[in-house]
Amino acid sequence: xxxxxxxxxxxxxxxxxxxxxxxxxxxxxxxxxxxxxxxxxxxxxxxxxxxxxxxxxxxxxxxxxxxxxxxxxxxxxxxxxxxxxxxxxxxxxxxxxxxxxxxxxxxxxxxxxxxxxxxxxxxxx
Length: 125
Hints:
With about 120 residues, the protein is of the alpha+beta class. Helix content is about 40%, strand content about 15%. It has one domain (about 1-105): Aspartate Aminotransferase, domain 1. The chain has helices spanning about 1-15, 40-50, 65-70, 85-105; strands at about 20, 30-35, 55-60, 75-80. It has a four-stranded antiparallel sheet with strand order 1-2-4-3, covered by helices on one side. A hairpin with an 8-residue loop joins strand 1 and strand 2. InterPro entries: Aminotrans_V_dom, PyrdxlP-dep_Trfase, PyrdxlP-dep_Trfase_small.
């Protein structure tokens, strides 16, 4: 069941604009680390929390991987046997709302720095 949920989470996240999933889909555990080109993971985590969706933001004990991929942080959604597809849908809805909100602040692509990448620290709250 958890593998089915993991596949569903990967599929739904891959449909989100401005979201990159870290890691391959095949043989995935029931979690997904992801990065948005629009919203810093810490801000995203705060916004999702307000919507009742829990994700973790940070390095997830893999700073070298983040550096190799060119990211300072990522967000991570973890699933377990008590989660449902409706929980995944709630995550995606809240994620898309958050991305749309941050895009509306800048008129285009969110909190980017001079080279077009997401700022390392963008305090919002």
